[in-house]
Amino acid sequence: MRHVKCGSSSVLPFPIGKNSQDFSWIMAFNLESIAEATSGAVGALVSTTVLYPLDTCKTKYQAEIRSRNHQKYRNISDVLWEALSTRQILSLYQGLGTKNLQSFISQFVYFYGYSFFKRLYLKKSGNKSIGTRANLIIAAAAGACTVIVTQPLDTASSKMQTSEFGKSKGLWKTFSDFTWGEAFDGLGISLLLTINPSIQYTVFDQLKQRLLKTNQSRSSGTGSSPESLSAFSAFVLGAASKCVATCITYPAIRCKVTIQAAESDEDETKESQPKAEKTVSGAMYAIWRREGLLGFFKGLQAQILKTVLSSALLLMVKEKITKSTWVLLLALQRYILVNRIKLKNA
To answer: Which of 100, 260, 266, 302 could bridge across to 58 with cysteines, CB 3.0–4.6 Å?
Structure first.
């Protein structure tokens, strides 16, 4: 009998034969990464669905570049009032399916990559914990992989959210309206923004480790060892970490939305809407020329409210279902190992 320990999971017995030790370790290694990815993806679905109307209002508000003669939205509440006054309240959910698909794939890929690379680093380095610098690099690598996979869905979602209420197109129609190259509008700045989740999850992970160590030292007398955060603790740490990341990277976030939703700006004619606005420098110049320095922070409050609540909900849900997901996958691993041994002995 051999015991395998993965991350913070409790030590569990596996009936591992001598010739299947490597296979068993790989299975345990990958199953914990899959458990992390699945719980993160489910958390993303919950947070995205709950906060989607706020996300739509925030995105439409961010996408508008103020002109000197006309300003459609003075604040984010104007977007909500437009939906109410035109009896298009359900349009606040336009693009929800695409956003949920993008969020699920994005978070699954991110959490799988982050968990996999982190455990691989710990195994290769022999360290018991991961430092801040290594954490940032691993999170950035996982984020870059995620962006490349989900960028077309992200672009389509932004197009659908910023279209006029009641006139949003379906996913396939939206894809058919722009070329393959346009599907990756904002890819460069999206790759740059991988520093956002890198900062967020690094701050969260470091705060989580410190809090667990504090709780563990307090409960050392009873012999218990906390393995996960409480829902409230995960919510607070998630909110704090996302707030830090959002404040640091917000100008780039504003530029990204401007690039992806350039064609939705109703105040500009096709002649005055140069293709340069779909580049980082073009978007920065357009915001600077029409809105000044403060334009780069337009909608910051709404972004913080939405992203902080979304991230906090995501991490709270993830923390609470990770253990259950791990148990289910562990049962699956045991079933595969038993059948593998039976087939080998047959």
So the answer is: 302
> Which among 238, 230, 147 has a CA at the least distance from the CA of 200?
238
For 321-341, the DSSP string reads: HHHHHHHHHHHHHHHHHHHHH
Q: Where are the beta strands (DSSP E) in the chain?
A: 2-4, 12-14
> What's the longest Cα–Cα distance across the chain?
81
Residue 269 above 60 pLDDT? no
CA–CA dist 12, 9 (Å, integer): 8
| pLDDT of 24 | 52
Distances in Å between the Cα of 14 and the Cα atoms of 28, 110, 121, 265 are 10, 28, 24, 59
Rg for the chain, CA atoms, rounded = 23
**Are the C-beta atoms of 257 and 306 separated by less than 8 Å?**
no
Distance (Å) of CA 235 to CA 173, 197, 203: 37, 16, 13
State how far the Cα of 301 lies from the Cα of 260, in Å rounded to an integer. 21
Predicted confidence at residue 107, as pLDDT, reads 79
Q: What is the pTM of this model?
A: 0.61
Phi then psi for 95, rounded to 5 degrees?
85, 10
* DSSP one-letter code for 169: P
Residue by residue, DSSP assigns 225-283 as ---S--HHHHHHHHHHHHHHHHHHHHHHHHHHHHHHTGGG-TTS-STTS-GGGGSHHHH
Cβ neighbours of 275 (radius 10 Å): 8
Q: Between helices 76-85 and 52-63, what is the axis angle to 10°? A: 110
Give the dihedral sign, CA 136/139/144/145: positive
